[in-house]
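Journal club prep — side note

Before the paper discussion, L.F. wants everyone to see what a predicted structure for a comparable chain looks like in token form. Sequence:
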Amino acid sequence: MPSASSRHPSRDTRMLVTVNALPLAVGVLLSCSTPLGEISVYGRLTLGIAWASMQLAVLIGGTCWYENRAASSFDPPSGTTAASRSAGGAW
């Protein structure tokens, strides 16, 4: 039976999904409306391409943020050293 913590996503996971779901939903709406996606933003840069680029940046930034948060939650306390860990010291 899964533990209570594995059944419910952590706050960081919910944040990552929410931050990436909002741009994805807007991207889907833009892809359903060709005239909206073809609006010129700057020169030949269209709203669809600008939004897709922004969505990619949010995905990469959010993933890096989540990875750093996940890695820092598994770091041992700063009071422990490699020698104490190898000698069976407490984490």
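L.F.'s comment for the group: Residues 47-73 form the longest helix (27 residues). Keep this in mind when we get to the figures.
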